[in-house]
Amino acid sequence: MLFSQVMESIRLVMTQSLLKGLDFQPLEGLYYTAPACGFWLILQSAVFEMPSFIRNNDVTNLVKYRNWILICCVLGFPLNLFSYFLIKLTSSLTLKILANAKNTFLVFVGVVFLGETVSGVQFSGYIVSMVGFIWYNFFSFKDLVSYEAPVADAPEGLKGKDEGEMGVEAIGGKKEREWIAEGGGRREEKVEVESK
Question: pTM of the full predicted structure?
Answer without folding.
Answer: 0.58
